[in-house]
C-alpha cells in the first residue's frame, strides 16, 4: 500500500534526523557553540517553554539529569512520556497486543496545555522557587 | 480503549496534532507550538461535546500552526548550517562562550 510505505519512510527519516541531531547535541555544548538561539527570548527577553532545551538535551545525553532539569524541567518530564508514546505506537503496529497511547487519552491535551502554560509563566517569575525553572545559563 | 470516545461515537476524532505540537513547543521555542496545543485541546473538547465540525476546524488550525512552527524551526537550522559553511568553524561555530 502506497500510503503505508510513505508513512514508514517519514518515520525512518525522522529517526535518522533525530540521531544526527542527538550526535551534534552530544558532541558540542550549546553553551559554547553557535546553536540557534530562541527567537522569542531574543525579541522579548522572556523565556519560552522551550528555552534551555538544547542545553538540557546535551546534559541528558551525558547522563547529567540535574543539569538537564536545571535548564529545562519540562523537557526532562515530557521526554520519557514521548518515548513511552512512541514505543507503544511502534509496538501496536508490529504486534497483536494494543497498548494505550499516552497522548491519545481524551484529557491529555487539556493537561498538556495547562502544564505548559503554568510552566511558561512560572519560569519567568524572578523569585525563588519559580526562578529554579528558568534556564540555568542565559545566553 | 475505555477512556477513548471513538468507540461509541460514529466518526473518529480528527487528528489533534498534540504530540507534534508538544515537540514544536519544547524543541523549537517559537510559541506557535503552544497555539497548536491550545487547538489540540479544542479538538478533544469539541469532539467530546459532539461538535464534529468544530473539532475538524480545530484540527486544521492545530495542524497549520504546528507545521508553520516545524518548518520555521527547520529553516532556522538550515540557515545556521549554511552560516557555518559560509563563515567557517572558527568564525561562526566556535564563536560563543
Concise summary:
The complex is a heterodimer of chains A (139) and B (97). Chain A is mainly alpha-helical and 139 residues long.
Report on this structure.
- The complex is a heterodimer of chains A (139) and B (97).
- Chain A is mainly α and 139 residues long.
- Chain A has one domain.
- Chain A has helices spanning 2-27, 39-44, 53-61, 65-71, 73-94, 108-122.
- The radius of gyration of chain A is 17 Å and the shape is globular.
- Chain B is an all-alpha fold and 97 residues long.
- Chain B is built from four helices and no strands.
- The longest helix of chain B has 36 residues, at 52-87.
- The termini of chain B are far apart.
- Chains A and B meet through helix 2, helix 5 and helix 6 of A and helix 1, helix 2 and helix 3 of B.
Features:
heterodimer, A: 139 residues, mainly alpha, 6 helices, B: 97 residues, 4 helices, 71% helix
Amino acid at each position: 500500500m502506497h500510503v503505508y510505505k510513505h508513512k514508514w519512510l517519514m518515520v525512518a527519516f525522522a529517526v535518522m534526523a533525530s540521531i544526527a541531531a542527538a550526535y551534534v547535541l552530544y558532541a558540542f555544548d550549546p553553551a559554547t557553540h553557535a546553536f540557534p538561539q530562541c527567537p522569542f527570548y531574543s525579541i522579548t527577553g522572556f523565556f519560552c517553554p522551550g528555552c534551555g532545551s538544547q542545553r538540557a538535551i546535551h546534559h541528558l545525553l551525558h547522563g547529567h539529569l540535574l543539569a538537564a532539569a536545571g535548564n529545562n524541567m519540562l523537557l526532562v518530564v515530557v521526554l520519557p512520556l514521548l518515548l513511552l508514546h512512541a514505543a507503544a505506537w511502534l509496538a501496536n503496529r508490529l504486534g497483536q497486543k494494543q497498548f494505550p497511547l499516552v497522548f491519545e487519552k481524551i484529557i491529555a491535551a487539556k493537561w498538556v496545555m495547562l502544564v505548559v502554560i503554568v510552566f511558561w509563566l512560572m519560569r519567568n517569575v524572578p523569585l525563588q522557587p519559580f526562578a529554579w525553572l528558568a534556564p540555568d545559563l542565559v545566553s | 480503549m475505555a477512556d477513548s470516545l471513538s468507540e461509541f461515537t460514529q466518526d473518529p476524532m480528527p487528528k489533534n496534532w498534540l504530540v507534534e505540537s508538544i515537540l514544536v513547543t519544547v524543541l523549537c521555542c517559537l510559541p506557535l507550538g503552544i497555539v497548536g496545543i491550545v487547538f489540540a485541546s479544542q479538538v478533544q473538547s469539541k469532539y467530546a461535546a459532539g461538535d464534529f465540525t468544530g473539532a475538524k476546524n480545530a484540527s486544521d488550525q492545530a495542524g497549520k500552526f504546528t507545521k508553520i512552527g516545524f518548518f520555521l524551526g527547520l529553516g532556522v537550522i538550515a540557515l545556521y548550517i549554511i552560516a557555518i559553511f559560509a563563515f567557517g568553524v572558527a568564525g561562526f561555530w566556535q564563536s560563543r562562550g
